Amino acid sequence: MSTIEKNGIEIGIYTLADIGPDPLTGKTITAQQRVKEIIQAAKLADEAGLDVFGVGEHHRLDYAVSSPAVVLSAIAQVTERIKLTSTTSVLSTLDPVRLFEDFATLDLLSDGRAEILAGRGAFIESFPLFGYSTNDYDELFTEHMDLLLQLNRNEKVTWSGNYRSALKNAEISPRPVQERMPIWIGVGGTPESAVRAGRFGVGMALAILGGDPLRFKPLVDIYRNAGLEAGHSPEELKVGVTGHAFIANTTQQAKDEFFPYYSNYWSYVNRQRGMGTRMSREDFEHMASPNTALFVGSPQQIVEKVLRQHELFGHTRFLAQVDIGGLPFNKVAENIELLATEVVPVVKKATSK
């Protein structure tokens, strides 16, 4: 029996480090302040006993982190036991050797707490930045993933592909503390991505940002079937769920407090993607209703949503994004506290065997 089955699912938080104006004050913090607050949030999460802290990668001025490994290394120095992961590393445009060595270094600095969550990214600005073509979107990801897994398994690697120079008996240094660093693939909702994660035999992290979680059940089944067909054991095929969250004492209070920030978040994310849509309160009420995947409500409501998803997916990890839309740090800190004290104990008890 794995420790996760014994102690219930892992629960943590993650950030994409978006920098947006606070819709109530109109003030926007600096990238420097944002990064310092992220480190502080990780410290609070560690002290509160959460299991995982994740940091995302973006290459735009409205996000503060382009190098998760660097920020996680700073976090490693002020935390003791929390696992440290990227959420996500844009593997299509990263050199797998550089990525692996950066996270192996993080693993040494953190005494074996590093993980890599690789994804294809929601934006494409990293492609021209690092000299790649978006025409090779899928092939790049698959090839880089294949190499990354080989680097994780072997001290010396011989490898050749189409998009980077071949390796001949190359020494990959340093080696991490862990025999193998945990590697996950982030999946947004396409069956092809789920199949790929299963074939590679790595964890699959589902980004479920809204709607009925039931629609993701087929992806989990596809992933597990593909993994078993490729000869991987059920233990290797871990599922994680990530989602937006805001917790307050009552569900009504949570919705009232979070709406301005959530609406703000989607208005600037949609603008970044060239869409000018605004979210109405009515839309938000619908998105936050009890049967959806938006984790906004009282601790009890959050517990119910996490457990409903656990019934559907049997996942081993849940990560909440609690710092979006210009939300002030004191609210982020309150959310970490409520998650750790009111949600985690109930969920862990219900999901431990």
- Determine and state the CATH class: Alpha Beta
- Major β-sheet strand ordering: 1-2-3-5-8-9-10-12
Alpha-carbon distance between the two ends: 9 Å
Number of domains: 1
Largest sheet: 8 strands, parallel, barrel
Which residues sit in consecutive blocks of at least 5 with pLDDT less than 50?
none
What share of residues are in beta strands? 15-25%
> Which superfamily, in CATH terms, is the homologous superfamily?
Luciferase-like domain
What's the β-strand tally?
12
SS summary, helix count? 12
Describe the structure in your own words:
- It is a single chain.
- By secondary structure, the chain is an alpha/beta fold.
- It has one domain (3-351): Alpha-Beta Barrel (TIM Barrel).
- The chain contains twelve helices and twelve strands.
- The N and C termini lie close together (9 Å).
Walk me through the topology.
Blueprint: H1 3-7, E1 10-15, H2 31-47, E2 52-55, H3 68-76, E3 83-86, E4 89-90, H4 96-109, E5 114-119, H5 126-129, H6 137-153, E6 156-159, E7 167-171, E8 183-187, H7 191-200, E9 203-207, H8 217-229, E10 239-247, H9 251-272, H10 281-287, E11 295-297, H11 299-313, E12 317-321, H12 329-351
Parallel strand pairs: 1-2, 1-12, 2-3, 3-5, 4-5, 5-8, 8-9, 9-10, 10-11, 10-12
Antiparallel strand pairs: 6-7
Helix pairs in contact: 2-3, 2-12, 3-4, 4-6, 7-8, 11-12
